[in-house]
Design brief:
Length: about 190
């Protein structure tokens, strides 16, 4: 399966594994693989999602992206773990990501879509209006293209709160699809 891996500028991940193209990495398989553990190599099924989730997963400040192939042993919301993965080639980062202002807008749109996708679930457990207000603030930020840092921060907070709410409620949200929609909506 086609997968995407982010590295630092040296082609390394946090554990110092190098992903220069045409290298295969393999770990001993186990009966109960877990993401965010050392027993699998991590990747994504969607390039846009890899870049959008980078701040909360690897937090690589200036990432490189590699196309890889591997058999998925475990997955959750588009992040996957493989026992064996091969880096195929380096990819150019998409224009939406390399342009700082466009990246910010895509991140906010992704935040809105994520938050809206689980808002109804959240509101069945809580009457707290702040998530809905954060979504509205994020939409205002996009509508008026302001540089208001507070609106941008509210939008990002709404996205991560939404992801946590979805996880807590065991909601099946296709975050890869939402990532693609966010990119398409902003770059159209």
């Amino acid at each position: 399966m086609k997968l995407y891996k982010l590295t630092d500028q040296n082609g390394n991940t946090q554990n110092e594994t190098n992903w220069i193209p045409k290298i295969t990495h393999e770990k001993q398989s186990c009966s109960n693989p877990e993401l965010c553990s050392a027993n699998v190599y991590h990747a994504y099924t969607n390039a846009n999602l890899a870049l959008l989730l980078n701040p909360i997963h690897a937090d690589i400040s200036s990432p490189r992206m590699f196309e890889c192939s591997g058999d998925i042993a475990v997955s959750d919301w588009g992040k996957v773990g493989c026992f064996k993965i091969t880096s195929k080639k380096e990819l150019h980062l998409p224009t939406w990501y390399t342009n700082q202002e466009t990246r910010k807008q895509v991140q906010v749109m992704f935040a809105i879509l994520c938050a809206e996708s689980v808002l109804r679930v959240y509101e069945t457990y809580s009457d707290d209006p702040r998530p809905r207000r954060a979504i509205e603030a994020a939409k205002e930020y996009l509508k008026y293209q302001t540089t208001d840092a507070a609106a941008y921060a509210a939008a990002r907070a709404a996205a991560w709160a939404a992801a946590l709410a979805a996880y807590a409620a065991n909601t099946d949200v296709n975050f890869a699809k939402l990532a693609d929609i966010a990119v398409k909506e902003i770059t159209k």
